[in-house]
Amino acid sequence: MIWDLVLCHGLLYSLFSTGIVVSIMRIDNRVFLPIAYLPEDLISAIPQQGEAEKRRAALLKLIWLSWAVGFPVFSTFHFKALSGSLPGFLFLFLHAFLVFFSFWLVDLVFIDGIILCWVTPEWVVVPGTEGYAGYKDFGWHLRGHFGKGLLVITAAGLLAAVLVMVV
Fold it and tell me: What is the Cα–Cα distance from 145 to 32, expressed in whole angstroms?
């Protein structure tokens, strides 16, 4: 493992990812709503997205997804190039996973914990849900991160490692 590369790329990934996610949330605070995981009081109060809003959300998610997957894959290719020989699959996976994990952790602590739950600025509050207790419920963020989120970054790390091994 090249730990300096993991730390450097993990930090860059986390900083840029945080900037992108916060920017997207400021443009449209409903883009990243995981309706299935929201606290009950918010699920019942947030109306469904209209067609125009769905199209805008799809475009913003595409921008996010391109970066969110692209940079860790690039980083894993970079790790392979710096290694001088083909690192084993486990090392490629571990590198990719740790880069993905860096933002997973920053998202959980900074975006979800501090911004959404603790500070809760008005730009994160969906109109019509002001003052709802669900915004302060950190438990649903924990369930999402340790449930689906951890599985997603593990699968993404595996796919990145396979891609780098094959190419």
Answer: 14
**91/37 Cα distance (integer angstroms):** 33
Q: In the prediction, which pLDDT does 6 show?
A: 96
Query: Would the pLDDT of 34 be above 70?
Result: no
Burial of 93 (0-12, 13-18, 19+ CB in 10 A): buried
Region of poorest pLDDT, from 26-35, 58-67, 108-117, 118-127 = 26-35
pTM: 0.91
Are the beta carbons of 153 and 144 closer than 8 angstroms? no
Q: Structure tokens of 99?
A: 């880069």
Nearest to 76 by CA among 57, 55, 98: 98
> Taking CA 158 as the corner, what is the angle to CA 1 and CA 104, rounded to the nearest 5 degrees?
80
Q: Where are the domains of the chain?
A: 3-166
